[in-house]
Amino acid sequence: MIKKYFDTSYVPWRLMMRLSLVSFVMAVYFVTRPVNLQLFNVIIHILAIVYPLTLSWLCFRGSGTFLWPSHSAHPALPTYRRFSPAFLGMAMLCFTLAEVFWVQRTIAQPITSAAEAYAGVEHYIFLGMYPFLICAVLFLPLQNLPLLPRLRLLLDSLIIIVAITTCFYYFIVAPIFVTGVGTVGEKIVASIFPTADLVLLFCLLLVALRFGGATLRPALIFLSVTVLCLFVNDVSDLYGVLSKSYNELSLSNVTLFLAAIMIVGAAQTVRRMLDKDGSVRAISPNEVERVGLLSPTGCWKAVLPSLLVLIFGLLVFGIWLTGGAQHFHGQILIVYVGSFVVLLLMVLRQFLAMHEINKLQRSVRAKNLSLSMLNVKLEQLAISDSLTELLNHRVLMVKLDEALEHARTTSSTCAVICMDIDHFKTINDGSGHLVGDVVLRNFGMVVKLVLRPTDWVGRWGGDEFMAIVPDVDPFEAYQVAERIRKMIDQRVLAGNGELRVTCSLGVATYPDDASERETLIMLADAAMYEAKRLGRNQTRTAHEPSVQGFGIAVEAPRTLEERDVLGIVEALIALQEIRDHLTSEHERRVSALARKLALKMGLSEEAAYVVSLGGLLHDLGKVTLPDKLLLKKGRLTEQEFSAVRTHPVAGAEVLSTVPTLHEVAAIVRSHHEWMDGSGYPDTLAGEAIPLGARIVAVADAYDVITHHRPYQDAHTTVEALHALLKSSESQFDPYVVAALVRVLAEGPIRQVGDAA
Questions:
Q1: Largest CB tally within 10 Å, which of 220, 300, 470, 509?
Q2: What is the dihedral angle through the alpha carbons of 472, 473, 474, 478, rounded to the nearest 10 degrees?
């Protein structure tokens, strides 16, 4: 708790103890006078010069590194903060010089106990201490306080000082001037000293109240004790002058020993602060105001000068109303002069405050402008791709949701165009990634030029782009895609004409091709890959038979047998579409996901193609089920469930009639087998289940969980993964589930789906 308010780690305790011991011995000698008067005078003369000169040296010791920046250990330290210890040393030099003149004057005139004359040269030199002490206070290391707050601090101090000094002179000094003895010069000089002490005291109080931190408080305490000691001595001298009993060797002079020690302690404490910390953290005027506003005591500290001026104004008004008790003619002039000075200082402070406010306002406006620009930049970064400055993947999904919702509400259409730059990897490998980045940026610019202002285009990922085109039918969407393809084919996207690129595009339209977002994207993507598979630099649409059946394939049919297989698969897909449109969309999604899982698990493109066909046709056998069973919303009876369990065998039997689809038939037959052997129809277990069937089983279960069914609501991706992991090893292959986790981590997490 003590360290919170006082940090004494910079206080030179050993030096202070030694000086205190020496001062105590000198004070005892001064009070007891153990030798004869002549020897006493000689020793006092020597001590009066040597002692303050030594203290002056102690004040300056170690401060040279702060006075000359070029030789300073801390060249970055603000210049005005280097001088606080030096100002204290200069104050001690004034004290020493005053003592030298005092010794010179008293050598010829022995020191006695009788009253001596006041206002010698040494007194005027001694007054020179106060400007240096005030400067030392104002230049204390107040967290590198800027110049304007320091000027405001000085004006606040002067306002308080003038108000207090006016009252002090009117109520105390002026009456004493009239009633006391002594010359006018002695009275004026004697009264200046306590007034200067008040000035210094209120400077210290204001600094302590407004900016005194735990580190600085020991130095402020040293200086406060110094001022109190000087005030005691000066009041004693004033009383002696006015009562004609002034004595240069009075006991009150002992307080000067303590004051000198405190000055040395303050100088060395500040020096150690600057030497150890180098530079206390600089704060701006804005931060000064903010700290003051946030501080619990900041408000009343800030209004303290104005509050005292208000009290002073009320006092002046009261004196003016009553006429005041004047001890001499013109005494009230003191009040008028003081009031005028306070008013002048208040006006200056207001001008300074207005200047600070203007600076703060300019700074706030500049920072607000900078903040607005940063906010705009952050908004752009949040919604756009950093390379192409087009919409990013996340925002494209949001825009597509909005477009589909608008299309559903207004019974209109919406097309999705997926675009992929042909042979982009070759461009990166041959010309470098910087050239590849230029191609991507220019590709996005060309696409944006072709589209309408109401359309959206963004970077889907890598070298793939997506455009969202509302209110167009499938043919119009195809024409838009063709304009993009032709424009790209005609433009030079990088280099001096030697680097041209082409692109492959796929188009899917709501509601003709799909009724939900995921299926629409999947079909547009499948159409794009079909365009690449069939030779690149072309546009394919989702309703084409090759896309419906083989949109996930990697190669065009090479033989008559493969073309026959394609025709058979297209016929089977058409059969499922007629029988149950929602089941057909489910199978397409399962097919696409199964292919991704197969590739993620390291299967070849050909093997992944077979697995995807298994996913596409895994529910083919359901065409044999009656509508009342297939579309039933409630729970199935045991007899009904037994009928449903026949669909894998029925589908496999249809496919096994085609020799090239035997592997697909095996996947369809076993996709409901469980890893623990409790599945159907053959109760296979573990690796006895074909890998393709295990992959399709996971893809099928994930799609069922995340889409609405007649017998259940849709769930989130996280909930689906939790269910699959829970059933891992008993129902599903854990390696396939792990591959699903990796696949989903590469794209956005799906939300609850719509009807499937």
A1: 509
A2: -40
